[in-house]
Write a structure and sequence with these properties.
globular; disordered N terminus; binds pyridoxal-5'-phosphate; 610 residues; six-stranded mixed β-sheet; Alpha-Beta Plaits
Length: 610
């Protein structure tokens, strides 16, 4: 594919923040040339001599390089894949083994958590968010589903609670020296707003890939934004190093008692607001700060109420850690719900969760999209994926256990939606609700077969249809249908099958939904074609680096990218690699450093593209 060998005209996947170099706080491993493109630095003056900055337990993941730069030291936690722990949607898994006496005795300073939550000053900046009944959803599920509207907070998420709670406890001297944090999302806005309220200087380190809209909203709150590093880990390493150098207080996003206590005020409000017996509270889990805080409060005052974590099935670091009885690190993490895309949960948050939470429900990307739609229909609000996670978990749990007549609470934790993501959300929401199915049927390539197919599909509403003649004998059509009742879909499948029209349900395949449905019609049997899904980092040069790795030695036979508002660009690539060169190909793919997975043998690829 010749076009890819040329310098790319900045396709969407390479869009980036305009960056301007103003001063010289730069990791030494960047060359002058790349600095101008990669780092936007507005450095506030260092303020004082060293005072011990408040650093989190994950401090040990950062090391200084000999040349005073920042590097991210590899974590020594066991590395596991998200796939190693999967269970049906709605099932309460990862139920922790309590270390002591049903979880009542082992967490140190349990009373301290309770009293601190009760006396927290978060209301200087946060509101007591309403607890609202979701009427339509309640009716549909046969339970009273209550929404704890943290998406209505100033800055549109609960994160300001924890940040403010920690910062409000700093001494005058510490506040004068300023604070620093690293975040590409809601924590950044929380820290910025808290700093504004407390009149202190805040520096926020964000990866260079952070969308402009996010870093601008932080800057508008008066904080100094530093765009630095390609990943969150690098931005964090920078922030921790600078905290030491400038004696700023590092404000961690989740793993600090004061942050956890601040988030715990959500639990306190629920207990106060809820009339009548409460069955369970569903809480989205990233690093675990929100759920640890809620559990620390609720399990002390109402131990009968279940506190249930919800994670995306490809970002299940807490479920895996609880399952293994120790903190583990995900080898890769799904980025769709970016607010909870965490590879490793916190140390303090893990200890609290192991003692106090009831387990973790896992949900799919489709289910999260369906819950965003539910919320829109319910309250005309648009939640970000992490913000809708708990609702998806609550719904799945009610269905899985056939729960009826109970009060359940789901925390709608944030509404900072990346607008570009809405396209994917609308595409997948009906699939997530099981109201749309993606199918493929094999027809004979002869006159009249299309008409016969349409007659058999009958009354089903077709929402998508793809067909292109590609062989003399058989044709594959890819299509989606609206589904009112599962039995309608099954009846249609039987009609097709009884007329010898082989039909496949592809609804569960992300490969089909993300890529193959857009590639239909380009079928050709390409020799030695290896198919891979790569996650390209969204930075200038990512595509050229990829091409330098494989081209011109191997021909690129397929390339598909569709922006989904994610941090990494999800790209499907076909490359022609001879069998004898496979080992070298794998080595090169590894050295490229982008996450990738081989999908050549995926049966849906074989069906649709061969
Ligand atoms: C919207 C939203 N929901 C949930 C979470 C998860 O919170 P925690 O990291 O405390 O588990 C975050 C974290 O930033 C978030 O932004």
């Amino acid at each position: 594919m010749e076009g890819l060998r040329l310098a790319p005209p900045q396709p969407t996947l390479l869009h980036r923040t305009e960056t301007v170099l103003r001063t010289s706080f730069i990791g030494p491993h960047f060359t002058k040339k790349c600095i101008a493109h990669r780092i936007r630095v507005s450095v506030s003056k260092p303020t004082a001599e060293v005072s011990s900055p408040t650093l989190t337990s994950s401090e040990d993941t950062v090391a200084s390089s000999p040349s005073q730069g920042f590097v991210v030291a590899p974590s020594d936690r066991p590395r596991v894949s998200a796939n190693s722990l999967q269970y049906p949607s709605g099932y309460l898994g990862a139920v922790p083994e309590r270390s002591v006496d049903e979880g009542k005795g082992d967490v140190k300073n349990a009373m301290e958590y309770l009293t601190n939550i009760l006396s927290s000053k978060v209301y200087d900046v946060a509101i007591e968010s309403p607890l609202q009944l979701a009427t339509k959803l309640s009716e549909r599920l046969g339970n009273q589903v209550w929404l704890k509207r943290e998406d209505l907070q100033p800055v549109f998420s609960f994160k300001l609670r924890g940040a403010y709670n920690m910062m409000a406890k700093l001494t005058k001297e510490q506040l004068e020296k300023g604070v620093i944090c690293s975040s590409a999302g809601n924590h950044a806005q929380g820290v910025a707003l808290a700093a504004k309220k407390l009149g202190c200087n805040a520096v926020i380190a964000m990866p260079v890939t952070t969308p402009e809209i996010k870093w601008q909203s932080v800057e508008r709150l008066g904080a100094t934004v530093v765009l630095v590093g390609d990943s969150y880990d690098e931005a964090q390493a920078y922030a921790k190093k600078r905290a030491k150098e400038e004696s700023r207080t590092f404000i961690p996003p989740f793993d600090h008692p004061d942050v956890i206590m601040g988030q715990g005020t959500v639990g306190m409000e629920i207990v106060r607001q809820m009339q009548g017996p409460l069955h369970a509270i569903f809480v989205p889990v990233g690093g675990g700060g929100l759920i640890a805080g809620i559990a620390a409060y609720v399990k002390r005052v109402s131990p009968e109420v279940k506190v249930i974590g919800v994670e995306p099935s490809d970002a299940n670091a807490m479920a895996l850690s609880l399952h293994h009885g120790e903190r583990v690190m995900l080898d890769k993490v799904g980025g769709f719900a970016d607010g909870v895309a965490v590879k490793e949960v916190g140390e303090e948050t893990f200890c609290l969760c192991r003692e106090l939470v009831d387990g973790v429900v896992l949900v799919s990307r489709d289910a999260i999209c369906a819950s965003i739609k539910d919320m829109f229909e319910e309250k005309r609000s648009i939640l970000e994926p992490a913000g809708a996670l708990a609702l998806a978990g609550a719904e799945a749990y009610c269905k899985y256990y056939g729960l009826k007549g109970k009060n359940i609470v789901a925390i709608t934790s944030g509404a900072n939606m990346n607008f570009d993501k809405l396209r994917v959300v609308t595409e997948l929401a009906n699939v997530g609700r099981k109201q749309e199915a993606v199918l493929a049927t094999i027809l004979a390539e002869k006159p009249g077969s299309f008409k016969q197919f349409c007659e058999l599909v009958g009354p089903m509403n077709i929402t998508e249809f793809k067909y292109r003649c590609s062989s003399d004998k058989a044709a594959v059509v890819l299509y989606s249908v609206g589904v009112h009742m599962v039995s309608d879909l099954e009846a249609m499948r039987q009609r097709l099958e009884s007329s010898q029209l082989r039909t496949y349900n592809l609804t569960a395949s992300d490969l089909v939904k993300d890529h193959l449905r857009y590639l239909m019609g380009g079928r050709l049997n390409v020799e030695n074609e290896v198919l891979c899904r790569f996650v390209f980092p969204e930075r200038p040069g990512a595509l050229m680096k990829f091409l330098d790795t494989f081209s011109p030695q191997w021909n690129i036979s397929l390339f598909h990218y569709r922006g989904q508002g994610e941090t990494g660009a999800n790209v499907l690539v076909g490359i022609q690699v001879g069998k004898s060169e496979m080992e070298e190909f794998i080595q090169r793919s590894e050295s490229l450093g982008y996450e990738y997975v081989l999908v050549t043998n995926d049966s849906n690829f074989q069906l649709l593209m061969h």
